[in-house]
């Protein structure tokens, strides 16, 4: 009997291995066969466009199937464009010369300072301790923490990792079971509390900084930090609140929270250190400089680069030389590699082809129709690939489309950013895997929340965003 059980287990393990093997073969085959078919089934298009579409589709499929680390694809992609003869090395690696890279680098180092000093954790626990007496209270606390952390930590991975660790500690203290509706709701709320408000400021995340750079390139004028905030901050704050409360769609169990647990967690951090106090003052000065970039004319990239470097200098001494090794430089290669998609799409004529193909559909339609259609297009585009890749590939053509239609191209770019923010699957937004890995999220319930967010997002555009943009003169 025991032997039979062992044999059954062996067979089961063997079956699982075979299924995984077949799945991998199908995925790898798809990444090659589909791009090849696209190339040979579009003979009417120019060589450059066909190669671009096939190569880019290979990258998108490889990202979607998670066959290799995303950064590997981002590194190889520009080289493939060069080898195929559709672009030159100077253009292929132009992403490294973009201010987007320097904003991200500065943001990564600033994030390290906020986390290393313990300031970020203090903000998270304090926000939760102030409001967390039940599920709604915890959600409000998460929204507050998200609002505060967004400008202080311009990197979503760091924000998610920080808040996830704090929330999981609280879930464990409250003895909430992994996979429960309450565990799913709180975990999802913590993720949405830091991912939704990123759209409100130009340095909110790598994808937002990239979008700002691409929109600026499309309109021929640099978008300042203050300009982006004036157009997007209020919608972002409202969207954050809405996003966090969409978790209630799964009807989580009622929860009564012993506030002393949250207060105890906060007190474990001890009194605020001199470094934390100094960092708060320093960050406020940096935020003022960012908000007034239109006045002093210093690009936010240079402000963040210098400000982050000074953290290592005498006088501040907030970071030590060994802290630089903790910065995730891989993200810079990923962003630089994906940025090339938009550049090559334009140089090969692919962007123009897309514009010419979809302009008749939008011609003569109202601005509201165009904006909602753009929002839905962004959702569909994001389903095909990662956030950064979706921004790089699809923001430039939409900006051009709005120029052709006589609409404000800023609105087109902003709408794409708003539409790309929601997600349905983990591959679309890698930082989600940080919170998902803790095991408290039931994927089925998370899927319901994310799907509901899509529907709510369309109403949000109609009821909040479009009227707001009309009020401030964007439309």
Question: What's the topology here?
Answer:
Blueprint: H1 2-40, H2 47-65, H3 70-83, H4 89-92, H5 99-116, H6 119-131, H7 135-152, H8 156-173, H9 181-195, H10 206-219, H11 225-245, H12 259-267, H13 274-291, H14 293-296, H15 300-310, H16 330-347, H17 350-362, H18 367-383, H19 387-405, H20 409-420, H21 432-436, H22 443-471
Helix pairs in contact: 1-2, 2-3, 3-16, 5-10, 5-15, 5-16, 6-7, 6-12, 7-9, 7-11, 8-9, 9-11, 9-22, 10-19, 10-20, 11-22, 16-19, 17-19, 18-19, 18-20, 18-22, 19-20
Structure description:
The chain is mainly α and 475 residues long. Helix content is 73%, strand content 0%. It has one domain (42-471). Helix 3 packs parallel to helix 16 (330-347), helix 9 (181-195) packs parallel to helix 22 and helix 10 packs antiparallel against helix 20. The longest helix is centred in the N-terminal third of the chain and has 39 residues, at 2-40. It is globular. The model has no long low-confidence stretch (mean pLDDT 89).
Portion of residues in helices? over 70%
Estimated structural class: mainly alpha
The topology string of helices and strands comes to: HHHHHHHHHHHHHHHHHHHHHH
Counted up, domains total 1
Residue-averaged pLDDT, rounded? 89
Structure summary, number of beta strands: 0
């Amino acid at each position: 009997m025991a032997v039979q059980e062992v044999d059954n287990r062996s067979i089961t393990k063997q079956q699982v291995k075979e299924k995984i093997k077949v799945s991998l073969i199908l995925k790898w085959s798809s990444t090659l066969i589909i791009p090849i078919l696209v190339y040979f089934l579009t003979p009417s298009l120019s060589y450059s466009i066909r190669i671009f579409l096939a190569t880019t589709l290979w990258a998108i499929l490889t990202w979607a199937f998670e066959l290799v680390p995303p950064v590997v694809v981002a590194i190889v992609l520009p080289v493939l464009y060069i080898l195929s003869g559709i672009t030159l090395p100077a253009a292929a690696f132009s992403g490294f010369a973009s201010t987007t890279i320097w904003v991200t680098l500065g943001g990564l180092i600033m994030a390290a300072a906020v986390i290393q000093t313990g300031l970020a954790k203090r903000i998270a626990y304090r926000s939760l301790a102030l409001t967390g007496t039940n599920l709604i209270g915890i959600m409000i606390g998460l929204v507050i923490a998200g609002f505060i952390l967004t400008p202080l930590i311009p990197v979503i991975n760091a924000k998610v990792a920080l808040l996830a660790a704090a929330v999981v500690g609280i879930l464990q203290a409250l003895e909430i079971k992994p996979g429960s509706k309450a565990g799913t709701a709180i975990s999802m709320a913590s993720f949405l509390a830091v991912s939704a408000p990123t759209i409100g400021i130009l340095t909110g995340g790598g994808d937002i900084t990239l979008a700002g750079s691409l929109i600026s390139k499309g309109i021929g004028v640099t978008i300042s930090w203050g300009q982006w905030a004036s157009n997007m901050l209020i919608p972002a704050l409202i969207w954050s609140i809405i996003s966090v409360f969409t978790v209630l769609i799964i009807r989580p169990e009622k929860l009564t929270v012993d506030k002393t647990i949250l207060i105890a967690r906060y007190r474990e951090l001890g009194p605020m250190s001199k470094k934390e106090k100094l960092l708060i003052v320093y960050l406020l000065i940096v935020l003022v400089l960012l908000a007034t970039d239109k006045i002093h004319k210093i690009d936010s990239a240079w402000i963040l680069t210098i400000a982050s470097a000074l953290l290592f200098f005498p006088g501040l001494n907030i970071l030590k030389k060994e802290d630089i090794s903790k910065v995730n430089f891989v993200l810079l290669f990923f962003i630089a590699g994906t940025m090339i998609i938009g550049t090559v799409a334009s140089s090969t004529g692919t962007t123009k082809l897309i514009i010419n193909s979809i302009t008749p559909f939008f011609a003569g339609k109202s601005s509201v129709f165009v904006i909602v259609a753009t929002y839905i297009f962004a959702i569909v585009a994001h389903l095909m690939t990662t956030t950064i890749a979706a921004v790089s590939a699809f923001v430039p053509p939409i900006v051009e489309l709005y120029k052709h239609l006589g609409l404000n191209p800023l609105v087109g770019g902003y709408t794409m950013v708003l539409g790309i923010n929601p997600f349905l699957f983990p591959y679309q937004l890698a930082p989600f895997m940080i919170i998902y890995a803790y095991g408290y999220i039931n994927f089925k319930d998370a899927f319901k929340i994310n799907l509901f967010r899509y529907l709510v997002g369309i109403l949000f555009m109609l009821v909040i965003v479009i009227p707001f943009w009309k009020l401030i003169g964007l439309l």
